[in-house]
Amino acid sequence: MGVDITILVGTMTGTAEMVAQEVQQALETAGHRASIQVMDNLDAGVFQRGGNFLICTSTYGNGDVPDNAQALINSLETWRPDLRNVTYGVIALGDRTYKDTFCQGGIRFDKMLAELGARRAGEMLMHDASSGTLPEELAAQWVVPWVEQYLAPLRQH
Ligand SMILES: Cc1cc2nc3c(=O)[nH]c(=O)nc-3n(C[C@H](O)[C@H](O)[C@H](O)COP(=O)(O)O)c2cc1C
Q1: Is residue 100 a part of any domain in this protein?
Q2: Which residues pair with 4 in a beta bridge?
Q3: Which 3 state secondary structure label does DSSP give 77?
Q4: Each residue of 4-50: pLDDT tens digit?
Q5: Is 71 near ligand 1, meaning CB less than 6 Å away?
Q6: Which of 10, 27, 90, 91 is deepest in the core (most CB within 10 A)?
């Protein structure tokens, strides 16, 4: 059986993409199916068919999403699609030395998706680059229990 999940990656220097690859591997080892799409050139249409999504994004500028995520978040803001058939989780990468804008990129996606009717499964995972921990390790340990607690019970039989 297993769960299908699409991982959407917002990144500037590649960390979030590496995290997504480790997460994909952990999910597939556990018998789930995960595909990765970097956000470049994506718009709100990516959510059209509904299903399970994992937003994996860093934060830049003044608490902004990375450049490759701008078009996606702008199109969600403009089109305002009905996302009631979407369930999502968030892996937010940030750095606590930025204090007030810590992980705001992921937080912006969370707010936007929730506003459009999508349902967040569980809590966001937030990684602090100044903590000395590796985001790919933390995320790979977090993701399978997250899927099994929140997404597997929703699976259609
Ligand atoms: C110029 C710059 C600005 C950043 N701004 C923020 C920020 O406002 N808030 C935050 O939590 N992290 C901020 N970060 C930290 C990154 O989000 C973090 O290092 C992340 O792991 C980078 O992931 P990426 O390689 O996928 O882009 C910033 C990093 C850089 C280099």
Answers
A1: yes
A2: 33
A3: helix
A4: 999 999 999 999 999 999 999 999 999 999 999 999 999 999 999 99
A5: no
A6: 10
For ligand 1, pick from 7, 21, 55, 58 the residue to mutate: most ligand atoms within 8 Å of CB.
58
CATH label of the domain that carries residue 58 = 3.40.50.360
CB of 15 shorter than 6 A to ligand 1 = yes
Q: How many domains does the chain have?
A: 1
User: Residue 155: inside a domain, yes or no?
Assistant: no
Closest CA to 90 of 29, 5, 157: 5
Query: Would you say residue 157 lies in a domain?
Result: no
pLDDT tens, residue by residue, 60-111: 998 999 999 999 999 999 999 999 999 999 999 999 999 999 999 999 999 9
pTM of the predicted structure, to 2 decimals: 0.97
Domain assignment of residue 84, given as a range: 4-150
